[in-house]
Specification:
By secondary structure, this protein is an alpha/beta fold. The protein is 39% helix and 15% strand.
């Protein structure tokens, strides 16, 4: 994989030109994307920007995010060749930081359920669930944008063995992003490692506090197994065990933590909020292009058409109470450590995988970071996720770097 932070150091030192860094990505895409299929469309050539912390950094944009230089087709024939006039603000944030947008990455239709044909770069028998994660994992680009409604940043990062952050909601603006659920949809980043995520997010948001410090403090960690979401596969259980042991050996305080019942209830009602909002966000497409909607998404919308406003309001109340309970948990711990996915990437391309270990944290709006932890049978990676209190994205990145370094030493 291409390290964003290492590219920055080489460009700053004069060891590599910004155009040379972009050319490396173009060459890698040309060499690998015919096999992997991570890009919907891409530029044939790109000139690097002359200034900015992300100059020389080639970025892929999930194809539900508006770009003025490329079509935004949302994984659906309904929007074939659709060309927005303006960039989404999050794309402008990248450009203003000096990044070069190199193309659009594949997405499930409307960032929902129906899989794309993108292959997992580490094992072609497994899916990737995300063109953005696959493009980074294959060493084609150092940075990519994705979005998460249930688990579509953290889960594909785990499947592909890359680092990823779903920041606090809404640290990154979702204007110009095709909405599925406006209270859940969160823009996130994929990169080779935690340091790379920190450099990318800091440059985009002008928040120097997100940059890694010279030393990393040992965090107080609560291990959460989310029993209400059913048991994980053996690979994810092993990933969490190994990450916990590595963190404790490196000096962290580690203990199991039970979640209050209100958080289990929030997990149970999350689909009510998600699907009620989806019916409004996708109302035009559902009513005027019903048969053109992909089958899994269409079936889900058909199934959930009867959710009442009173049910939605009650679910939102549950979510508010759960956020308060979660905030209290962080009184004597710094982070939670839990599963990123039920297991390794599912075989074949029939399914994007289960977001059951992600959807609570998206609903809570808290920052989540995936760290690759182990390689399971079949050569597929499995990650763990670090979760910090709402707004503490710097703390989430710092703790994730601690766990990442502990795993590297273990």
């Amino acid at each position: 994989m291409i390290s964003l932070a290492e590219l920055q150091r080489r460009i700053d030192s004069g060891d590599l030109s910004a155009d040379g860094a972009i050319d490396q990505s173009l060459e890698a895409i040309g060499a690998h994307d015919k096999t992997i299929g991570a890009f919907v469309c891409r530029a044939k050539s790109v000139d690097a920007v002359g200034a900015g912390p992300l100059r020389g950094i080639a970025v892929g944009i999930k194809d539900i995010i508006d770009t003025s230089d490329f079509p935004t087709e949302m994984g659906s024939p309904i929007y074939k060749s659709w060309r927005p006039r303006a960039d989404a603000p999050v794309v402008q944030m990248l450009k203003q930081a000096g990044a070069s947008i190199i193309g659009k990455t594949t997405t499930t239709a409307f960032a929902s359920r129906d899989p794309t044909a993108t292959l997992n770069p580490l094992n072609p028998t497994g899916g990737s669930s995300s063109g953005s994660a696959a493009a980074v994992a294959a060493g084609m680009i150092p940075l990519a944008l994705g979005t998460q409604t249930g688990g579509s940043v953290i889960r594909p990062a785990s499947f592909c063995g890359v680092a990823a952050i779903k920041p606090s909601f809404p640290l990154l603006p979702t204007v110009g992003v095709k909405c599925y659920s406006w209270t859940l949809d969160t823009v996130g980043l994929f990169a080779a490692g935690v340091e790379d995520l920190a450099h990318g997010l800091s440059a985009m948001t002008h928040r120097p506090e997100l940059l890694p410090g010279a030393t990393v403090q040992a965090p107080r960690i609560g291990i959460v197994t989310q029993d209400f979401a059913d048991a994980p596969e053996a690979a994810s259980a092993e990933a969490l065990r190994i990450a916990s042991m590595a963190a404790e050996s490196a000096g962290a305080s580690v203990r199991p933590l039970e979640l209050p019942e209100i958080l289990a209830e929030a997990w149970r009602i999350q689909p009510t909020i998600q699907e009620f909002e989806a019916h409004q966000a996708l109302a035009w497409e559902y009513r005027t292009h019903h048969q053109a909607m992909p089958p899994l998404l269409r079936a889900k919308l058909d199934e959930t058409i009867g959710i009442l406003p009173a049910e939605y309001d009650e679910a939102r109340g549950t979510a508010r109470r759960a956020r308060g309970a979660l905030a209290e948990l962080f009184g004597d711990i710094d982070i939670l450590l839990t599963f990123s996915a039920p297991g390794a990437a599912p075989k074949g391309l029939d399914w994007t995988g289960d977001p059951r270990f992600n959807r609570l944290w998206t609903l809570m709006g808290v920052p989540c970071v995936n760290i690759p932890a182990i390689v399971a049978n079949g050569g597929l990676p499995v990650g763990v996720q670090v979760i910090a209190r709402f707004g503490d994205d710097a703390g989430a990145l710092s703790a994730a770097r601690f766990v990442e370094e502990a795993l590297a030493r273990a």
